[in-house]
């Protein structure tokens, strides 16, 4: 269920938004409506909503400032910005600060708003699923560095050697056959052994390890995304971006933007 705050200094707009969201096709709860940016910030800190629908121009604190302040406390909260001003500079500023959507009030339709919220809800559940899978993979990776019960000491030794090789050469164009040769096993036998010990296919493990290293570079350095792609073993930056979106649930650009917003 999405928990939503509506913030707009125009009472008719607040009432209309509240009304149209009652006729919904998704699970949501309006946890409050407020008339200015300061109230939006205070209510968000108290209620911890999933989504805040904000007017860009409000008294006491404008929508962009309110959004930035809320993000510092609640970095996972999503924002939909409303405005009467058809000015691209407003849209650019809102999106660059992390807004999910920027909509002109004159063009807003209830069906459009519900569609936007449905997409946010879907993305959040998808991201939660990906995070759960990532956590499970991380646990599996940690276990591979120790002996597994039910597997022989020799098997664990060979897989540990393979993992060390992957971790040292992930930025190269390594293959299953190459890693298998490093531990003196045939590719077919090594593939089965790797899956048996780690619980993952070799290719999936390599992708996730590379993307984990990429995330560190995206959040801890100012390297260009193209350079990061090369550093984690992908010579095609476009392919790297598509892969990152598929497995991490977010584009490299948004990953970096999200963490920059947290640091502000």
UniProtKB/TrEMBL annotation:
<protein>
    <recommendedName>
        <fullName>Stage 0 sporulation protein A homolog</fullName>
    </recommendedName>
</protein>
<dbReference type="InterPro" id="IPR020449">
    <property type="entry name" value="Tscrpt_reg_AraC-type_HTH"/>
</dbReference>
<feature type="domain" description="HTH araC/xylS-type">
    <location>
        <begin position="160"/>
        <end position="258"/>
    </location>
</feature>
<feature type="domain" description="Response regulatory">
    <location>
        <begin position="3"/>
        <end position="120"/>
    </location>
</feature>
<dbReference type="Pfam" id="PF12833">
    <property type="entry name" value="HTH_18"/>
</dbReference>
<keyword id="KW-0804">Transcription</keyword>
<keyword id="KW-0805">Transcription regulation</keyword>
<dbReference type="GO" id="GO:0003700">
    <property type="term" value="F:DNA-binding transcription factor activity"/>
</dbReference>
<dbReference type="InterPro" id="IPR009057">
    <property type="entry name" value="Homeodomain-like_sf"/>
</dbReference>
<dbReference type="InterPro" id="IPR018062">
    <property type="entry name" value="HTH_AraC-typ_CS"/>
</dbReference>
<dbReference type="InterPro" id="IPR011006">
    <property type="entry name" value="CheY-like_superfamily"/>
</dbReference>
<feature type="modified residue" description="4-aspartylphosphate">
    <location>
        <position position="55"/>
    </location>
</feature>
<keyword id="KW-0238">DNA-binding</keyword>
<dbReference type="InterPro" id="IPR018060">
    <property type="entry name" value="HTH_AraC"/>
</dbReference>
<dbReference type="GO" id="GO:0043565">
    <property type="term" value="F:sequence-specific DNA binding"/>
</dbReference>
<dbReference type="GO" id="GO:0000160">
    <property type="term" value="P:phosphorelay signal transduction system"/>
</dbReference>
<comment type="function">
    <text>May play the central regulatory role in sporulation. It may be an element of the effector pathway responsible for the activation of sporulation genes in response to nutritional stress. Spo0A may act in concert with spo0H (a sigma factor) to control the expression of some genes that are critical to the sporulation process.</text>
</comment>
<dbReference type="Pfam" id="PF00072">
    <property type="entry name" value="Response_reg"/>
</dbReference>
<keyword id="KW-0597">Phosphoprotein</keyword>
<dbReference type="InterPro" id="IPR001789">
    <property type="entry name" value="Sig_transdc_resp-reg_receiver"/>
</dbReference>
């Amino acid at each position: 269920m999405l928990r939503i705050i509506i913030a707009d200094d125009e009472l008719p707009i607040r009432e209309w938004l509240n009304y149209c969201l009652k006729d919904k096709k998704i699970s949501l709860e309006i946890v409050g409506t407020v008339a200015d940016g300061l109230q939006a910030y205070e209510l968000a800190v108290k209620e911890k909503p999933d989504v805040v629908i904000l007017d860009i121009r409000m008294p006491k604190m404008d929508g962009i400032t309110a959004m930035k302040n809320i993000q510092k406390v609640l970095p996972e909260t999503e924002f939909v910005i409303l405005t009467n001003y058809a000015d691209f500079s407003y849209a650019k500023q809102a999106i660059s600060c992390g807004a999910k959507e920027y909509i002109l009030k004159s063009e807003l339709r209830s069906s459009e708003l519900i569609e936007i919220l449905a997409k946010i809800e879907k993305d959040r559940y998808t991201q939660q699923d990906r995070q759960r899978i990532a956590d499970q993979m991380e646990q599996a990776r940690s276990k591979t560095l120790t002996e597994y019960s039910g597997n022989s000491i020799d098997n664990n030794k060979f897989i540990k050697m393979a993992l060390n090789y992957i971790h040292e050469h992930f930025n190269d164009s390594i293959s299953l056959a190459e890693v298998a040769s490093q531990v003196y096993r045939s590719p077919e036998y090594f593939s089965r052994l790797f899956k048996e010990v780690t619980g993952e296919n070799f290719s999936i493990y390599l992708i996730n390890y590379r993307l984990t290293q990429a995330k560190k570079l995206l959040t801890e350095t100012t390297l260009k995304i193209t350079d990061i792609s090369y550093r984690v073993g992908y010579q095609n930056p476009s392919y790297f971006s598509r892969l990152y979106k598929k497995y991490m649930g977010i584009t490299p650009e948004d990953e970096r933007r999200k963490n920059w917003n947290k640091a502000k």
